[in-house]
Specification:
- Helix content is about 10%, strand content about 30%.
- The chain has about 260 residues and is of the alpha+beta class.
- A hairpin with a 4-residue loop joins strand 3 and strand 4 (about 75-80).
- The longest helix is centred in the C-terminal third of the chain and has 19 residues, at about 220-240.
- It starts with 15 loop residues before the first strand and ends in an 18-residue tail after the last helix.
């Protein structure tokens, strides 16, 4: 096979392109890594920044602004839209008590990496903090749809919680009805602004949206790399050992 056939040249994209194009035709040297499993490392995340995000209120990264995306491992900011290669899906739940929320008084942080059992309050389905309150008051604990993207720097998690949750469910419905694998086509991640009334004040927040780019097919070698990552993550998640660097901090930061 010639070198020309080994080069992945995706279509032009007006945004931040995070497709792992270098994976095509490249063999990874695994010397010394034989005993490393997915459960042995903590994945970085690509998080949507909100006005309450710590990164937006720090002088360390002046480019961090609400509505942009932040790679926690690289500590770099990206402008939406992103083009990524998704290779795995998991679910989780988390309760992060907020100082500005009276109903959270005396609550403890509780994280469930499988959306089944929390590390403090136990069974998620029967937990009172996972239930909606009166007048559609959001629960203290929120469920998250999580996608792992294979990027040029390795896998990273993108979480869809609260305001982005429904967009992820709609995407999952489209994917589930398709005969194609998740990583057969790239996915575009968009950011949209919205407002909500919080205690009498209009607050601007941002939400994620997904678009499966089914007209563009990922080369077989990149699909094989994504499948390998999927197998590792599935195994780690099944053992309750799949972690990211943001799963013990409030990754959404949207006013309740």
């Amino acid at each position: 096979m010639t070198n020309e056939l080994q080069v992945w040249k995706p279509s032009p994209f007006d945004g931040t392109d995070l497709l792992p194009v270098d994976l095509v035709g490249q063999e990874v040297d695994t010397t010394g890594r034989e005993n490393i499993e997915a459960s042995d490392y903590i994945l970085p995340s690509i998080k949507l920044l909100q006005g309450m995000s710590e990164e937006c209120n720090s002088e360390d990264n002046p480019e961090a602004r609400p509505g942009r995306l932040y790679h926690t491992g690289l500590r770099e900011v990206f402008e939406a839209p992103l083009r990524v290669l998704l290779c795995a899906h998991t679910k989780s739940r988390a309760l992060f008590p907020r100082d500005d929320e009276p109903s959270h008084a005396n609550l403890e942080r509780c994280v469930s990496r499988d959306a089944v059992t929390g590390d403090v309050y136990g069974d998620c389905a029967s937990c009172e903090y996972s239930q909606w309150g009166e007048n559609r008051r959001p629960p203290a604990c929120s469920e998250s749809q999580n996608f792992t993207a294979l990027t040029p720097w390795g896998p990273a998690i993108i979480r869809f919680a609260r305001t982005s949750f429904m967009a992820a469910r709609e995407f999952i419905s489209t994917w589930a009805m398709s005969p194609k694998t998740l990583w057969a086509h790239p996915t575009q991640i968009n950011v949209r602004s919205d407002t909500k009334n919080v205690r009498g004040k209009n607050v601007t927040f941002f939400k994620l949206e997904l678009k499966w780019l089914v007209k563009e097919t990922v080369p077989p070698s990149a699909q094989a790399a994504a499948k390998q990552v999927n197998s590792q993550i599935s195994a780690a998640h099944g053992q309750g050992r799949f972690k990211s660097d943001d799963d013990t901090t409030d990754f959404d930061n949207v006013p309740l």
